[in-house]
Design brief:
Layout: H1 2-9, H2 25-35, E1 39-40, H3 52-63, H4 79-93, E2 103-106, H5 108-120, E3 126-131, H6 137-143, E4 147-152, E5 154-155, E6 169-170, H7 173-178, E7 184-190, H8 202-214, E8 218-222, E9 248-253, H9 254-257, E10 266-269, H10 272-283, H11 291-307, H12 314-336, E11 339-341, E12 348-352, H13 370-382, E13 384-385, E14 387-388, E15 404-408, H14 413-431
Parallel strand pairs: 1-13, 3-4, 3-7, 7-8, 8-9
Antiparallel strand pairs: 2-10, 5-6, 9-10, 11-12, 12-15, 14-15
Helix pairs in contact: 3-11, 4-11, 5-6, 5-10, 12-14
Length: 433
Amino acid sequence: LSLHLQAKMSRPVQARRLEGVDQNIWVEFVKLAATYATVNLGQGFPDFPPPAFLREAFVRAVSGENHMLHQYTRAFGHPPLVKILAEFFGKLLGQELDPLNNVMVTVGAYQALFCCFQALVDKGDEVIIIEPFFDCYEPMVKMAGGTPVFVPLRPKVPGAGKPMSSADWQLDPAELASKFGERTKALVLNSPNNPLGKVFGRGELQLIAELCVKHDVLCISDEVYEWLVYDGKEHIRIASLPGMWERTISISSAGKTFSATGWKVGWTVGPSRLLQHLRTVHQNSIYHCATAAQEAVAMGFRWELERRGQADSYFTQLARELQGKRDRLMRSLEAVGMTPIVPEGTYFLVADVSAFASDVPEAPGSDEPFDSRFAKWMVKNKGLAAIPLSAFYSGPHKNDYGRFIRFCFAKEEATLEAANDILQKWKQEKAAP
């Protein structure tokens, strides 16, 4: 009997669609950072609280007399939330949005992405992904049966005496156009971009839009860092460009908007003809998102709508504060010999660490990119955690760009001060005879 049971249990249980997508950079590096005493500037989330008005709204939601806020709400979005999102984003997109048909609430932007790929990508479809890219795009496309097609942002040499900016990483128009074909179903756009912090300009977005319209291709626009732009840059929503509303799904979340990544409240905005298919995936997977969190986020957007463009706008204050932290971290990294790339947006900063090649032990016979080996060495020997940029590239390009690492600067002053102390000590060690 035991042999019979053992034979039955040895049967493969893994679905074939999971093959090759089981590895995850975050699992590996979070574990590594926890193993060693580190200052963690790797994983991308703030270590400061959401604004007081948002926390107070959540407290009112869970402690007030409206007991229905503890129960199910509308499956595709709590009515107060979809109503304010339709009002808020309708103004930005120049569209009259129907809260019930043009907005869908999800369990964070992550689930919004999953719904897009599962609902719109079929076996044999190709999806264009711009590199470097947030790492979940590739496995989600593959799990849906699609084929990722990669096109890189290529760095241009800045002018003499100028630091490299994320704006210097650009698409080659001819190369991008060559990726569109009969099987192209969608293009994934992430602006502001994680990990580079690139904010795509109007000319770049018009190029993408024209190709999408010409080839009748959908656009999945991940805009979770839409409020985190610096130095007077403008975040342009591609759905607002001619011909793009009808083919674009715009994604964002309260996690990045209100510094509340653990609440997992995200949303999609787009035409009903597209969102109706996302709703089918949503109702057969998650079905429902946390009611009280949606209520609090609705109150947060109501607060922000009333203060839009004013000094006490949280979006304005947060961007200003993070720009200062960005500049501080850049100075610290430069002091130790790294070469930062100035991010135009997000709360990430990429730095070139090729000057440290001689400090990191060789790994004969290993195909692990240098930046990955460097990031692990830095955690173990310097107590500072970052993420290798190669994790944001497809296999063929990992070594091409494997000399950069990504830091997160959405941290409290104490955390950044601790990181600065590590870098200053490192600088002294390098200067010692």
